[in-house]
Design a protein that fits this description.
mainly beta
Length: about 325
């Protein structure tokens, strides 16, 4: 399973702005995120073998999404986290994505993807006004150039030398941040987690226009299109919820993005169908395929949700 898959396993969809999300739209004071102090959404994933009524249910684990607020170097930020835990026998999964957005205009600052199981992998997208830079945290591979004493190991003869176990070393003191790619774009981009939350401002309706939002993942850039098909009430562990059924389509933007490699909500591939809460735009139920060693048909359902709202802003005096 690729690190891109591990990261995407955490993510729900990017319900997006009509004709693309602009900075002005995202700064609107009525954006739903302006009213939230903290939020928690918990999903459970399951797969199955065979066909009903004899299908064998396979629990795959949970994904927990949280929204909090922090101030970093004097800048108020929204902090979005998604933590996935579970997997299948022989392929455990424990991974977290953290996205940081500037509160003033929702400009993305950072996307940090950190996998603990199966095997350590970490990467970052560091955003700025010109685009984003993609970094991987990997073992130092410059033994003849490196002068970092923390990268040295003791040899059998007692001498010190640079660690050369590039693929098997688990000592994070030997790891460095390596720049892998620079994205330059005049269009505002977000990672999937940031797009998930920002999308709540936008109106998606059956028979309405197709919506699109630009999403960056590692080296890939996509325009994710949202096609609203119909309204439907679905039953999930969180209850009966009136939803809009959505089908996702993706358009590659740069040379690295391949249509058959796109990984959508919760790392799903293939024909992806999502049911979004008509009122809140939160993902309620998602169906598709995911790779966890082997390929599984997967259903991801909302189990519980809670939200703490900020007090209403005082009205200006007349």
């Amino acid at each position: 399973m690729s690190h891109a898959t591990t990261a995407a396993v955490l993510i729900t969809t990017a319900l997006a702005a009509s004709n693309g999300a602009t900075g002005a739209e995202l700064r609107e004071p009525q954006h739903p995120l302006r009213r939230i102090r903290a939020e928690k959404l918990v999903y459970e994933a399951k797969s199955w073998k065979g066909r009903p009524p004899l299908a064998l249910l396979i629990p795959l684990g949970t994904a927990t999404f949280t929204l909090t607020r922090e101030t970093v170097a004097g800048e108020p930020q929204l902090v979005l986290r998604a933590h996935a835990r579970g997997g299948v026998p022989g392929y455990p999964l424990d991974a977290t994505i953290t996205s940081r957005l500037r509160d003033a205009d929702f400009l993305q600052r950072l996307s940090d993807s950190h996998r603990v199981k199966k095997g350590y992998k970490r990467r970052q997208l560091r955003f700025h006004e010109r685009g984003a830079d993609y970094f991987k945290h990997k073992h130092c591979e410059a033994p003849t150039l490196c002068h970092n004493p923390r990268h040295l190991v003791t040899q059998p003869d007692g001498s010190k030398a640079h660690c050369r176990q590039f693929d098997t070393c688990e000592n994070l003191d030997h790891f460095v941040w390596s720049l892998r790619y620079r994205h330059r774009s005049g269009t505002r981009m977000h990672d999937l987690l940031g797009a998930l939350y920002l999308s709540r401002a936008f109106h998606v309706e059956v028979g309405g226009p197709v919506h699109s939002m630009r999403v960056v993942n590692a080296r890939d850039i996509w325009d994710v299109q949202i096609h609203a098909e119909k309204e439907e009430t679905v039953r999930v562990p969180a209850g009966r919820i009136r939803c809009i059924r959505i089908r996702l389509k993706q358009v590659p933007v740069n040379e690295h993005a391949q249509r058959d490699e796109f990984e959508g909500p919760f790392g799903l591939h293939g024909d992806i169908v999502l049911y979004a809460d008509k009122e809140t735009k939160q993902a309620v139920l998602v169906r598709g395929r995911v790779k966890l060693g082997a390929t599984f048909q997967v259903e991801v359902a909302l189990r519980e949700r809670s939200v703490e709202l900020l007090p209403p802003a005082p009205r200006p005096a007349r």
